Amino acid sequence: MSPVHGDHTGQNGNVRSLETTVGTLFEIGEDSDVMMSLDRPRAVNVERKRSFDERSISELSNIGSPCRRSGFLGSPRLSNYYESHPMVANAWETLRRSVVHFRSQPVGTLAAVDHSVEELNYDQVFVRDFVPSALAFLMNGEDEIVKNFLLKTLRLQSWEKIVDQFKLGEGVMPASFKVLHDPVRNFETITADFGESAIGRVAPVDSGFWWIILLRAYTKSTGDTSLSEMPECQNGIRLILSLCLSEGFDTFPTLLCADGCCMIDRRMGVYGYPIEIQALFFMALRCALLLLKQDNVGKEFVERITDRLHALSYHMRSYFWLDLKQLNDIYRYKTEEYSHTAVNKFNVMPDSLPDWVFDFMPSRGGYFIGNVSPARMDFRWFCLGNCVAILSSLATPEQASAIMDLIESRWEELVGEMPLKICYPAIESHEWRIVTGCDPKNTRWSYHNGGSWPVLLWLLTAACIKTGRPQIARRAIELAESRLSKDSWPEYYDGKRGRYMGKQARKFQTWSIAGYLVAKMMLEDPSHLGMISLEEDKQMKPLVKRSASWSS
Q1: What is the number of domains present in the chain?
Q2: I want to staple 402 with a disulfide (CB 3.0 to 4.6 A). Which of 78, 366, 387, 419 is the partner?
């Protein structure tokens, strides 16, 4: 596959006329002072196209200078290593084809570069999808594209968003954006989707968390603190946190979310308090503590963050954690308890325990379950949430070790022939009809419903390195190497063991490629883990009863 060429946006692979673009998006024009536009946000009606002005990225990129720089389109470092690994070389070549440029500056990567099928929204730069690409570039000494991406999405956050006459929160980050080129005027604009065009019209709760996490990764990797210390970045962090730390009717420190608000962006029964969002929330809070300046405004947020972290860590470690002992305790729960001494605090009915969980739970091991809310526990395993729990140290060292024990014990179920199950098990039959609304894309063992996603390889590898079990990651990477490149880097695999390429999977899926590269580079140089891992905060260690699965 060769890059698409056309004017100075040719490397984007997504050139389209402005006149053919759906008008329910946001646009960025050019040539005015960005500082003024950031300080004075204006309302944008998403039912119309309206341009707004901004300073060029090249000017902003010169604010502060990273400790290292490399030509973005240059060859990867360690060329001898890549020459001896054809699959790695192929991955880098394919990744670079996905790079999107805005006025000659790299600003992200396309979701996929598969011209054999309709593009839909795969020709956009997704915030969550770009994270593994960003990490790959940072590990390779190419930080310009990451800095540009962080600045570009920050501009998009600064504008008011109105959907169907309803104003979205000021801190909402876009799910994705797209560079558009007007060939008549030779003029580029950016459009963004804040959820108004997404399936189900749900705002991306995870985008803001990934942005903070990536900003910390950039700072840690480059040693450049000037970006995060910019007033605009400091304000961007505070706006995201203001959405999450606002007071309301909540009795839990977890975040209440709609279905489809994260990587699982379709109806899959993850509404409520999904583990993926809670783990990302926890990690973003910890990253924000490291990034926020200790000025008058910053100190107030630091206090609120610290209080929330203590409550959140206690809640998650106490009520979301499941191992053999806890499973047995739930099995024996009494119901209808009333008082502050209640053991069954969420009034979960023991009869609601699914049959599969009794066989799935090993004698040694455990995991954070998918969801906990009044009278409801979702016992499904979700890979991303558990891996982020390890990396953020939401999981205690004992819990992190137990999660790895579970992965090893249930290798056939969670890894099979292609890493890695996004969730386990699949829902089917009547439950599938009720939970997904008969979604034809999320049939059993496909897509989000028990499909196998190669992008998760980087998260597994990072978790393995942090817990001192690189052999697990090595085994998973070898499995992926047997097929990924030959199958043209598909988005996901189907089947109970991940044997079949996904029925609607895009080929040349960028985060499948980047996920493999990040996993490979971390295994070769474990020091890279530092940009995406946080050590345990001893002050947040809760009084959780020790269980059999934690014993050595």
Answers
A1: 1
A2: 366
